[in-house]
Amino acid sequence: MRIVVVGGVAGGMSCAARARRLDESAEIIVMERGEHVSFANCGLPYHVGGEIVEAESLLVQTPASLKAALNLDVRTGHDVIGVDTGKRSVTVRTADGSQQVSYDALVLSPGAKAVRPPIDGLDSPRVSTLRTVDDAVALKSSVDDGATRAVVLGAGFIGLEAAEALALRGLEVTVVELAPHVLPPLESEMAQLITDELRRLGITVRDGVAATAIEHGDSEDVVVLGDGTRIPADRIVLSVGVRPDTEAFEAAGIACERGAIVVDGHGRTSVPGVWAVGDAVVSTDAVTGIRRPVPLAGPANRAGRQVADDIIRRGSARPIPAPVGTAIVRVGDLTAALTGANRAALDAAGISYRTLHLHPNQHAGYFPGASQVHLVMHIRAHDGLILGAQAVGLDGVDKRIDVLATAIRAGLVAPDLIDLDLAYAPPFGSAKDAVNMAGMVASNVLDGTLKIWDATELESATRGALLLDVRSHAEFATGRLPGAFNVPHTELRERLDEVRGAAAGRPVRVLCQSGVRSAIAHRVLTQSGFDSASLSGGMLTMRAVLGDRAADNLITD
Amino acid sequence: MRIVVVGGVAGGMSCAARARRLDESAEIIVMERGEHVSFANCGLPYHVGGEIVEAESLLVQTPASLKAALNLDVRTGHDVIGVDTGKRSVTVRTADGSQQVSYDALVLSPGAKAVRPPIDGLDSPRVSTLRTVDDAVALKSSVDDGATRAVVLGAGFIGLEAAEALALRGLEVTVVELAPHVLPPLESEMAQLITDELRRLGITVRDGVAATAIEHGDSEDVVVLGDGTRIPADRIVLSVGVRPDTEAFEAAGIACERGAIVVDGHGRTSVPGVWAVGDAVVSTDAVTGIRRPVPLAGPANRAGRQVADDIIRRGSARPIPAPVGTAIVRVGDLTAALTGANRAALDAAGISYRTLHLHPNQHAGYFPGASQVHLVMHIRAHDGLILGAQAVGLDGVDKRIDVLATAIRAGLVAPDLIDLDLAYAPPFGSAKDAVNMAGMVASNVLDGTLKIWDATELESATRGALLLDVRSHAEFATGRLPGAFNVPHTELRERLDEVRGAAAGRPVRVLCQSGVRSAIAHRVLTQSGFDSASLSGGMLTMRAVLGDRAADNLITD
């Protein structure tokens, strides 16, 4: 049997390696258009930034090493430009011309290519993407050679990694993002924390605005934004997203959906004998059921492995699971991570949900180095099924998101999180871990023990309710909402009549710093006959929601 | 309603706080024998070591803060010495005498007390435990005052934390453990890594031997071991375990099992109106069904909360889950953590299982700072249910154990671990995370793709099989098993006839450094007709199993 794999990175190479482990007798040919296979594309920005010193360390495998270890026939510089699905052969273009190569099984892992937005002058030689080792080496060289000002178009994961890398190297960096905030998959209140960190790194953030033109100049270009801003730059990194690189396969009659290859639960395309994996295929989101390509390395590698199982052991292979969509990025000293669905996806899917905000410490507060994990969790309104979570913080973010990703995959409901026995010693966690706390808050919200209000409801709360701030007087003085009435939670029971007078029949909307004390206050109030609710995530979340408007909307003494 | 809680730490205080949040009208009295409530007992060793500078920071709450925030009536120095379950009252002893306090609901959270082994001279004033803030302050003072030599009796979690703290302070420290290795709940091959780290910290480890006597001296005591060793010490820390502190309650007719209070799934004891939580109760292990006390803070806090629900909302409270038994400890630069059952518990429960060893990196190998997570996982033989896992490493250990603890709680089987979408960017993980890798190896073992042999089978493998070492020649030279035949995995396909000759009809037992290359070699061999198996965890695990015998059992050039 001859297996031909198109694309020698992530999914394609995982498939080839697994196929060999399952079948010594198969002929396995990997066709890679580029110069390198199995390279560390997620490591490219760190080479530009200098953390990964040698470009060679990004080349995890070579055709020679793959031949020696796994007897794979890896052909770089081989571009598959056509498929004859009837004859079961592919047309391969190389520097020497074209050839036909027949297959018994064909695995398509062509990946994605950079989206090129309609910007005048995008053909400037100062514009580059960051998708290959050569891209990284070239960008790094331009910095080594004295580049001083960079614009990064697109503030997604790779865009921010590139921006930070260039800032680390001393360049003046501006990030331009068409969406309302950086890292568009993050909720805005989480993205605000990342925007603040980017600014701390000296990076200029321009969000909610398009780049409309790049004016070519002799010593530098000028990036022109939709609002007229002109940003000089000697390097411009294009990172506004990717789309499946599938023209040749769609032309061959393999069914696609908005350019992405359609596959079944075993990675089989519409054509017998042809499988597809990775960034080029359409997946069905595990939480929302939304169909879209999921350009992530983990799911690609897994699908490659499962497709090899299906080819060699047809009928007995495990299905490829729907992706949960977990992702993470380091930005300065912060980490941002997310798993499952965000508000936009849940809204698009018409799923009714509740959103919780927490700011627990990553480990025991009395142990040196304690810092907060800013956590958002979405749960299904009627049963608490965990739909998605996001976290931002200095430490412990990856752990909480991985636990929650596991919970989502296992179909846990939020109260199940209370029951998780997570590892606790003072350097690592708390007796009630951040994830346990999320389960407790969710459980309270689901059964009505806790009624919450959201920072986005501030306007109506200010208009129609008493804002009751139960922080200490000292905290209150450092920044309060206009009209807020201050009764520290430790004085609340004695001052209920005073609160009743101030409320004058209106509901009470309680708030504190993080939502813990206001939840206690809510319980006191609701049992005393008040219509009360506690601000989800407290002033920490309120400040993040207000973002740049916080300075104008908070009163300080 | 009056709720009386006996014990103001962890479970008891969680119960009292939750009860208040649920019911403003209840009278809630917490009786604490000691001087402090809600103190950070897990933080005590770090105060001795100087990482937690102020003892005050260990006092998370005070009676006054609990009164102000939660209207709790917290009484320290109040020792509950008897219960009249018929009259629903407790007898409380204070400095001023005894009193009766009636209750509607009684919650017992008395905790555990240090086991005092039969050692002559254990009453020396130089012997102390490390269970209270006062213990920590006193031990720290003795160090501040010039103590120079310490013996720690017991190498469990707290014993090792104490030993490291004292070593950090410059003392000469010996740890004495009766069990065959330090951290007895760890598998021996994992414990060996911790023993090595303790030695690196300058701590002398004496395991598999009892302390038999403490000879009192003027300037120092001498700890005498069963083998005659005499160890001078001016401080002796007793940390050989705990047992439930329940005499008063058993005497009152509350059903106990080997000294631990028996409770149902809602924390209810045998007596109406009496609940119990924490270190003093017997739990049914979630994995093995073995009944024993589980002295861990997380389960205690959770049970306290659930008992409050049961008291206030009887009938609608969620049950208290069986503990999974997750624990973690930092030892020097290493972290050791475990979740679920170990070999001893599985053997005791008669559960048939398979054990896997892996040594994956904690994050992308090409990113600076990559280090190995040494991982052991036990899975049920017939279906791959995850039964337990342990990990030791420099970084990323807590995350993997928490993910696996979540998987165990959710009832996942090992192949489900392949499907987890874990957060990947080069600083945080790999496209195939350590946990995914564990799932892949387990899946291969379960379906027969991979046949493994265990390092403990070395003797029979040496006797009846060809040991085939597929590492490189250079690796082979640094330490090999006697009789091992070296064919690098990259040369294996070309040298199969040579292997066939060397095997001479015997099975082939393959090995490499970590088990990855030998698994590939196994696939080559088994498809070529050999009876082959791959060493689980490779030479890294073999060296840990050999432990101190490695030097005598390995040949180096």
UniProtKB/TrEMBL annotation, chains A, B:
Domain Rhodanese: 461-551
Keyword Methyltransferase: no
Keywords, sorted A to Z: FAD, Flavoprotein, Oxidoreductase, Redox-active center
Cofactor: FAD
Superkingdom of this protein's organism: Bacteria
Statement: the UniProt record of this protein carries the keyword Glycosyltransferase: no
GO molecular-function terms, A-Z: oxidoreductase activity
InterPro entries: FAD-bd_OxRdtase, FAD/NAD-bd_sf, FAD/NAD-binding_dom, FAD/NAD-linked_Rdtase_dimer_sf, Pyr_nucl-diS_OxRdtase_dimer, Rhodanese-like_dom, Rhodanese-like_dom_sf
Family per record: Belongs to the class-III pyridine nucleotide-disulfide oxidoreductase family.
Name of the protein in its database record: NADPH-dependent 2,4-dienoyl-CoA reductase, sulfur reductase
Organism encoding this protein: Tessaracoccus bendigoensis DSM 12906
